[in-house]
Design brief:
Residues 27-324 form the CN hydrolase domain. Keywords: Glycoprotein, Hydrolase, Signal. It comes from Pinctada imbricata. The chain is α+β, with helices and mostly antiparallel strands. The chain contains nine helices and 24 strands. It is globular and about 70 Å long.
């Protein structure tokens, strides 16, 4: 039963014990992975009426999902980024799909019962009625058009702004919150907001924050929400394209929730032809449920699961956080009985998503590996239960500025299956495995406390999977002691660290270097653009 039903059934207990039971137990969450129906023409400009017809095709699927979720007692539902009209528009092609969204901090509005108050608000009215008719909170992604002053010059080139926007509605259909995506990923149809404050909304089962897709890799808004505002529930619309081995949607989003101790509701679009897939409901203790299907022609899915209400004042698992540890002080205590003495094997370098990792092949069935790369020192204790003749695993480390399709400083200790028995294949995309590991532990001397523990497993037919909780992550150490449920083979496991302070330091260094090498006489427009590119670092996973 849902939170609403539990509260109703326990009314007598409330009267007798005067205990605020409903506000401290569980709630039922729903996320939707939607196979978006794309308009035929996303570059040319269609009429507003044609745009409405195209969006209605997707919104009708939203109705089916919402009604099904409501029938199962869902308290909140989250829909994906770009789910109403799809990605890949030109600026002018997207304009007819946009609506003016008022600021919920300054207005109180139920679009379902007060339509047309702010002009043509077809999508907002539809979503508001979905929330109202199904008596649940709703989060969706849509386009917002805001007027601007042409005297702003280049900041207002076409007379208006276009924002990639998350909206939330309460169970009466009232517009609660509006968030403009801060970190765009090659989304030239949208405007990057000049100022953006972390966005939250309140429910009977906790306060929620919202951010979108590529935002998750940056400090603002995710870390501001979690560290400063103590938010423990996140609604996350996304259009995430998988990048293996360490940035698959289900892999990274579940790791983000595990490290920061969050309830994390991740709703992705379903477009397997272009590697868009992977949604889930994640908790501080591991995945509650997830969906991954990369088969061409497969359908989207509705996920529903109960989550514990988390006190927003609780900090995220301080025992899982470690400050910078000099390599000489890394704890090398053998936590796994089978660990052998370190043997010297040749190391090599290979690229993982355009970052040059230092690797060592796992030659033995069990052992201990240490290696350092640019100041990051990683260690691995492991025991392999079964390895097939044509498979090979390696352990690697990388510390530095990632510069491909965005700029962000990462520190990664990575255990992975190589694509072949050639060393140069380590880091290439792998979708299946047959070898199984009995146990392993990974740790490193990370310079930041933000370290996300990842495990990605193999299913049949090149499908990916997660371990529901056959592992622990404490004091900066990822530990697997008894293999994985159903003996699922391992594709990769990592500690993926982010140092947000280094982002800023590298931006400043690159900016200074640019002016030093080019002089101060350079065209102001050009230097301003380059500075903005470095500063934002956001070029939609």
């Amino acid at each position: 039963v849902s939170l609403k039903m539990r509260c109703f059934d326990l009314t007598i207990l409330f009267l007798i014990y005067n205990d605020n039971f409903c506000s401290s137990e569980t709630f039922r969450a729903a996320v939707v992975e939607h196979a978006v129906l794309l308009p035929q023409d996303r570059n040319g400009q269609v009429s507003r009426e044609e745009a409405k017809k195209n969006m209605l095709k997707n919104l009708q699927f939203y109705t089916n999902y919402a009604e099904k979720a409501a029938s199962q007692g869902a308290d909140i539902i989250v829909f994906p980024e770009d789910g109403i009209y799809g990605p890949g528009f030109s600026w002018s092609g997207l304009t007819p799909y946009l609506e003016y969204i008022p600021d919920p901090n300054t207005v109180s509005w139920v679009p379902c019962t007060d339509p047309g108050k702010y002009g043509d608000s077809f999508v907002q009215e539809y979503l508001s009625c979905l929330a109202r008719n199904n008596s649940m909170y709703l989060v969706a992604n849509m386009g917002d058009i805001q007027p601007c002053d042409k005297t702003d010059g280049e900041a207002c080139p076409k007379g208006h702004y276009q924002y990639n926007t998350d909206v939330s509605f309460d169970s009466s259909g009232r517009l609660l919150a509006r968030y403009h995506k801060q970190n765009l990923f090659f989304e030239f149809q949208f405007t990057t907001p000049k100022k953006n404050h972390p966005t939250v909304f309140d429910t009977p089962f906790g306060r929620f924050g919202m951010f979108t897709c590529f935002d998750i890799l940056f400090e603002n808004p995710p870390i501001d929400l979690v560290e400063t505002m103590k938010i423990r529930n996140i609604a996350f619309p996304t259009a995430w394209m998988d990048v293996l081995p360490h940035l698959a949607a289900i892999e990274f989003h579940s790791a983000f929730a595990a490290d920061l101790k969050l309830n994390f509701l991740a709703a992705n679009i379903h477009w397997p032809e272009n590697r868009f897939h992977g949604s889930g409901i994640y908790s501080p203790t591991g995945p509650k449920t997830f969906y991954y299907n990369n088969s061409i022609g497969s359908d989207g899915k509705l996920l529903i699961k109960d989550l514990d209400v988390i006190d927003s004042e609780e900090r995220g698992a301080p025992s899982n956080r470690i400050d910078f540890i000099p390599y000489d002080h890394v704890d090398r205590t053998n936590t796994l009985e089978f660990t052998r003495e370190t043997r010297e094997y040749e190391t090599f370098y290979s690229h993982v998503f355009h970052d040059l990792f230092k690797f060592q092949i796992l030659h033995e069935k069990s052992g201990y590996v240490e290696l350092c790369n640019n100041g990051l020192c990683c260690s691995l204790s492991y025991e392999i239960m079964k390895i097939t003749g044509d498979e090979m695993y390696a352990f690697g480390a990388f510390r530095g500025m990632h510069t491909y399709q965005g700029r962000y400083f990462i520190e990664v200790c990575l255990l992975l299956k190589c694509a072949s028995k050639e060393a140069g294949s380590c880091g290439q995309e792998v979708k299946s495995a047959q070898s199984t590991l009995k146990s392993f532990s990974i740790q490193g001397n990370f310079s930041s406390k933000f370290v996300f523990p990842e495990i990605l497993l193999s299913e049949e037919n090149e499908q990916l999977s997660l371990s529901m909780r056959n592992w622990t992550y404490d004091d900066g150490k990822l530990l697997v002691e008894e293999g994985f449920s159903n003996g699922k083979p391992l594709i990769s496991s990592a500690l993926f660290g982010r140092n947000y302070d280094q982002d800023k330091l590298h931006v400043q260094a690159e900016y200074k270097s640019y002016f030093t090498s080019n002089g101060s006489h350079k065209n102001v427009k050009t230097t301003s653009f380059i500075w903005l590119f470095f500063l934002v670092g956001s070029l939609h996973l």
